[in-house]
Task: inverse folding
């Protein structure tokens, strides 16, 4: 196995389900460095310690600080508000999607999802924000 290049885009994943953590991490491991947290409060602390990822992927329903509250905290901060955020949720509800997008989410993906679609959407967001270039 070859070493992972250091200059890969970084992804912060907030997901409390271990199975989903594994799926997301596995899906992104080839093209991204990943840091995984089970709850939003630990992830927020990680950010406040000076770790700035290129993109954040968060489940809506996480302990201690849910995805919507996490999103609102990030988007109201002068330090973190430019970090793209993708919401994952098992809730397939138009009102929930609209609420998240209006609060500043860059995308909303319903679980279960195709891991390749998640990766493609992340790449598009990062390309749009100038973090990566795609061929």
Result:
């Amino acid at each position: 196995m070859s070493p992972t290049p250091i200059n890969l885009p970084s992804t912060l994943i907030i997901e409390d389900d271990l199975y989903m953590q594994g799926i997301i991490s596995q899906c992104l491991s080839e093209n991204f460095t990943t840091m995984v947290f089970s709850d939003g409060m630990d992830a927020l602390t990680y950010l406040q310690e000076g770790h700035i990822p290129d993109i954040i992927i968060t489940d809506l329903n996480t302990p201690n600080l849910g995805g919507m509250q996490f999103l609102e905290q990030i988007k109201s901060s002068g330090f973190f508000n430019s970090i793209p955020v993708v919401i994952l949720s098992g809730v397939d509800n138009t009102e929930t999607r609209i609420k998240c997008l209006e609060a500043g989410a860059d995308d909303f993906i319903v679980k279960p999802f195709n891991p390749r679609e998640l990766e493609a959407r992340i790449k598009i967001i990062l390309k749009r924000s100038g973090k990566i270039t795609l061929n």
Summary: The mean pLDDT is 91. The first strand starts at residue 10 and ends at 14. The two ends are 25 Å apart (CA to CA).
